[in-house]
Amino acid sequence: MDSAPDPTTAEAAPLELSVIVPARNEEDCIGDCLRSLVSQSEAGWEVGRDWEVIVVDDNSSDRTHQIAASFPEMTILYPPALEKGWTGKANACWAGAKAARGEWLLFTDADTVHQRGHLSLAAVEAERHNVAMLSYSPRQIVTGFWQRALMPLVFSELASVYPPKQVSDPHSQIAAANGQFLLVERDAYFSIGGHRTQGTNVLEDVAIARSIKREHPIRFRYAPEAISTRMYRTTKEMIEGWTKNLALLMPRPVYLAAMRALDLALFVGLPLLAFGFPWTFLWQKAAILLLWARTLWRFYARVARSNFPAVDIAISILGVPLFTYLLIRSTIDHNLRHSVTWKGRSYTAGRQA
Q: Could you count the other beta carbons within 10 Å of the beta carbon of residue 248?
């Protein structure tokens, strides 16, 4: 791939911020995303003078390009042809970064919606905390039973593996980022090679966070006041997406699948054991029910870390079979098949991050 651009020879003056939106077949959501970005100008910054928005159309076959082109403030690019092994998102992000003029680069997905005024606040937050990278975990918008049951399970485990306080602690080796909102200082980004060095990595956001944290402080937090996203439109898309990522995100996916399956077995089995047998002593039944209550408390205390609504957390126990299946399926695809599929493309898989 091409080398990093030299800011000192840029034809145009540098800007405060460049927002880079990689997009592949996003006609259902990119309009809302770009409208939320354009509205930031009403809160202070002027597009073209202080900041820019670059949409990188990753060979979309739907109306993504036409919708993006309907916003005159947008710069629309096409990425170069994929090199062997590269992921489409990394290729698109790298193409956008090379064209960007901002002192800060914000990589954000086409399915995100940004609250008015929060882009400038994010830049202030990064500078106030003296970090080279700031990443937000958005408020997740879910629809349908399976999304509402599964997503709290996934995000509770992410909160356990990547606690935001430890990610933000410079003395901790834990690093993470959410590619839906990844704000990085330009020099720090190019100093680690940016997305070019992670072109073949399916989990490029976490890998970039790890590279930057070796040299600079980073910050990561849940930010429902700043950004929201609807990650998946259909159950099929959700299954494909988490199959691609779960085995990479979770250190021991098979063990985790076994533990959550055990939770479900105890949830169903202990009441049957308590009331399905003629126990001689009442204390025996009480002990079983006490164990059941403890199992429920531990399960829901864990899922509460997901920051999802109470109703979604309550029904998450019903999503355990699907979650277990996806953990096993993701492990098989990464470790045995060495191939995952996303947005019509197949990628070589493995524990890269």
A: 21
Shared-domain flag, residues 215 and 304? no
Q: How far apart are CA 84 and CA 101, in angstroms?
A: 28
Do residues 227 and 314 both lie within one domain? no
Largest CA distance in the chain: 86
Whether the CB-CB separation of 103 and 17 falls below 8 Å is answered with yes
Q: Are 91 and 203 in contact (CB under 8 A)?
A: no
Helix residue ranges, H only, 162-234: 164-168, 186-191, 204-213
pTM of the model: 0.91
**Amino acid (one-letter) located at 239:** I
Q: 3-class SS at 122? A: helix
CB atoms within 10 A of CB 289: 15
* Interval 194-236: pLDDT, tens: 999 999 999 999 999 999 999 999 999 999 999 999 999 999 9
The span from the CA of 21 to the CA of 41, in Å, is 17
Alpha-carbon dihedral of residues 257, 259, 260, 262, nearest 10 degrees? 120
Among 70, 72, 71, 59, which Cα is nearest to 24's?
Answer: 59
Half-sphere exposure (Cβ direction) of 236: Cα atoms closer than 13 Å: 3
Q: Could you tell me if residue 246 is inside a domain?
A: no
